[in-house]
From TrEMBL:
Signal peptide: none annotated. Counteracts the endogenous Pycsar antiviral defense system. Phosphodiesterase that enables metal-dependent hydrolysis of host cyclic nucleotide Pycsar defense signals such as cCMP and cUMP. Residues 12-192 form the Metallo-beta-lactamase domain. The keyword Zinc applies. It catalyses: 3',5'-cyclic CMP + H2O = CMP + H(+); 3',5'-cyclic UMP + H2O = UMP + H(+). This is MBL fold metallo-hydrolase. One of its GO terms (molecular function) is metal ion binding. Its cofactor is Zn(2+).
Amino acid sequence: MRIETFTLGPLQTNCYLITEDTGKRAFVVDPGMGPKRLIERIRERGLTIEAIVLTHAHFDHMAGVEDMRQAFGCPVYLHDEEADWLEDARKNGSARWSDVTAPLTTAPAEFALSDGQKLELIGHTFQVMHTPGHSPGSVSLLCDGHLISGDVLFKLSVGRTDLPGGKERDLFDSIRMKLYKLDPAVRVYPGHGPQTTIGFEMANNPYVPA
């Protein structure tokens, strides 16, 4: 499995292009604002995009959904707690950030994600972990020692909880009771900033010490 990072938009959101080791199957996590480079890369490599998976539906993580749908005809997966956020600019936050973007909406997701779900993509099984706190429907994806954490856990930081639907207690519980239970060697791919590992965060994260 290969994970390629594209940092998109004014909020520097990490979008991940995940491909099988050999062959042409791939899927995308969190296509943010201005996904032109991502789309060009997919076309250059002749990839078939099986899905778009959203760790959550804040605008900086979903702004490129419609461009991706139009380019590749791929379905979208999103947790049910945020099922209506793609259609509501107030809930996805774009209506609140007029200095960054115009209000953004898109059609709803085709498929729902749920805690413990086994998502079969590109010949691999990804475990869906419901990790609320930053937003009510935040999820993390785990596969073969790799964790896509969205805006839950960052290197030496955590996701903000002052946006609508955010809850600090839920965020800390998600990190301590779920993410910190993983193998310390698991590599974390966050929604913003550099990669880290579970073990490094357990030992060094100033917001949620182990």
